[in-house]
Structures are given as structure tokens and as C-alpha cells.
Amino acid sequence: MNKYWSELAKRLDPYVPGEQPKDRKYIKLNTNENPYGPSPKVLEAIRDCTDERLKLYPDPTCDMLLSAAAEYYGLKKEQIFAGNGSDEILAFAFMAFFDPDRTILFPDITYTFYPVYTSLFNLDYKLVKVTDDFGIPEEEFYNSPGGVIIANPNAPTGKFMSVSSIKRILDNNLSNVVIVDEAYIDFGGESAVKLVDKYPNLLVVHTFSKSRSLAGMRIGFAIGNSELIEALNRVKNSFNSYTLDRLAIVAGTEAFKDNGYFEETRNKVISTRERVTVELCKLGFSISESVANFIFARHNTIKALDMFRELRARGILVRYFKKQRIDNLLRISIGSDEEMDVFLAEVGDIVREN
Ligand code: PMP
For the chain, what is the domain count? Predict the structure, then answer.
């Protein structure tokens, strides 16, 4: 703490992102990045626009990107908002739709950025306890005093809630906004985007960091009723009009167009996840079904923290959360088949040595 800090800066409890270590080369299975890299067409488009035009500000409306998004989703441009990663969009959405005197609801086990935003924006929240097998009790989200945010599939559990459950939560929150954070939706879940025309209180948030392999470009989208999108634009234009740079706008536009690469790589991740799940079960892990690009696993005898440390010493990073209810589980991102074979071999050694 420093005497020059504002009261706001003092009370913050910032988010801690997963490690991006520089000391040696690791197999990185800790931040849910995509192992396959961006589409070659995206890389080519970025190279083609890396020239003197960078002296000019980017289009603050991201018109080209929103047109590509509108075509992809079959919606109007006015129903889509583009942001500098979905984290930024979530921050804007918390500002645009939640008020300090109205408690919002989210699950006790979920993306740890949500409570961070509540402290930044001075919001009140109540945690809804997920079941022991990480199910989200739908009825507990009915009639929230001030709004709802749910990650679906949830993180770090990978558990999916059906679109019909989301629909019932929306029906029972007609005076609140329900944000559905679908960061991992492309790895097997069913998107709630199809509901946006019917529900003026639904905001769906997507990212290009996972299934499009563009975490380094920072591109995310919010999809919803045009009046919700207008509120996001009001917040954005009171903060920074140029949240997406020129390269990100081009990269995102191209990524929407290269559907073939998107389908091929996400299917590879899904089939690797299924194979690794079976192999880990043979090695003594219990794993609940995941529809994300990671699995959340508990070993039947070896403690998660011990396994985490052993793997790290062998050059493999996974994610360990020192948090009540989940401190004996590891979140393992799905890498390439080669990476996962090394991972499985090391886990096998650790299990035999313990
Ligand atoms: N939502 C969830 C549930 C996430 O796990 C992440 C990734 N950390 C994000 C949003 C943010 O993704 P990005 O800012 O890279 O779009």
C-alpha cells in the first residue's frame, strides 16, 4: 500500500493469470491456450496489413469485424460488440448492467475474474454453491436481485448447463441481465446465442482466445439485444474508443472466414480430450465430463499439489487452484497429441513412483 493510492486501488484484489514462465521451455497445459496456432490465412492477413497504415488509428466501430461476425452468427451488426478479449467485455458488461445496490449471483466455483470485477466496480454478490459433482443448481439463479453471470461450460470444471436451463433462468430474471460467458462453447457445448432474438435480457460472451487460437491478439465478442450492445458501446466510448487495434480487427475478420481450419482444429482438441480422459482414468484419476478444452481431474491417491509440483519439475505446467472445494483437483488444458503423450507418460511415472 502506498499513500498515493486511491481508495479504489487499495481495496482491489487483482486477478492472478496463469503462469507464462520464461525460465525454460514447458509443455504448457495451464492457461487453456489452443495448441494448434491460428489459421495460416489469419497469419497471412496480419502480415499483409503490417505496414505504414499502422500510423493511423483503427476503426473505432470495428465495422469489418462486426460484419464478418454478423454473417457468422446470422444476426445484425447492432447485436454484436467486439472487445479487447472477453475479459474486457465482461468488465464493460459488469459496468453496463449491474448496480452497486443490487446483489448479483454467480456460482461459488467459477471463473475467478468475476469477484475481481465486483471489487473493482463496488458490486455486491452472492455465491451459489455448485453441487458436489459441480452441477449448477438452476433454480437458485431464479429472481436474482441484480443479475446473473454464468460461465457455460463452467471454468474450471468444464461442466455444461443445457440451453433449456439457461432459458428458464432467463424467464425467471426478466428484470435482470443474465450474462452467459461461453469462452469454451466451441468444444462441445450448445450455444445460447440462438436465444438472443427472443430474450432482451441475455448477453452471450465469446472469445477468440480458445477455439480460434488467438489469445495473443485479444479478441472477444458480446452478442445480445441491440439495446444491451448500445450500453456496452456507451461504456467503451467513455473508456477507450480504440480497444481493438488494426491487426486484431483484420485477424478476427479472417478467422471468421476460415471455418475449415476452425472445424478441423476444434475437432482435434475434442478427440484428444476424450482419449486423454480415458487414459487418465486408467492411471487412477476421477474426471467429470468436460465439454471444454481442458479437463478437471482428481487423483484417487496422489494429492493435486504434489502432482502439480512433480509435473512442473518435469517441464509440464498444469493449473492448481488453492481454493476451497477444488484444492485437490488439477485443471489440465488439452494440448496437441504429442504434448499429451509426453504428459501421460510423465503422469504414469509419477503414479508408479508414489
Ligand atoms: N471467460 C472465461 C470463463 C475464461 O476462462 C477466460 C480465459 N481466462 C476468459 C473469459 C477470458 O478470455 P479472453 O480475455 O482471453 O477472451
Answer: 2
Query: Is residue 51 domain-shared with residue 193, that is, in the same domain?
Result: yes
Pocket flag, ligand 1, residue 155 (CB < 6 Å)? yes
Which residue range(s) make up the domain with 209? 40-258
Q: Looking at residue 299, which CATH number applies to its domain?
A: 3.90.1150.10
151 lines ligand 1 (CB under 6 A): yes
pLDDT tens digits along 85-135: 999 999 999 999 999 999 999 999 999 999 999 999 999 999 999 999 999
Last residue of some domain: 258, 282, 305?
258
Task: Check: pTM over 0.70? Answer yes or no.
Answer: yes
Task: State the distance from the centre of ligand 1 to the C-alpha of 265, rounded, in angstroms.
Answer: 19
H-helix or E-strand spanning residue 205: strand 202-207
DSSP H or E run through 165 = helix 163-171
Query: How far is it, in rounded angstroms, from Cα 217 to Cα 213?
Result: 9
CA of 228 to the centre of ligand 1 (A): 20
Q: Does the C-beta of 333 come closer than 6 Å to ligand 1?
A: no
Final residue in a domain of this structure, among 258, 273, 292: 258
Q: Which three cell numbers, joined as nine digits, stand for 259?
A: 471455418
Among candidate residues 325, 294, 330, 333, the one with its CA nearest the CA of residue 154: 294
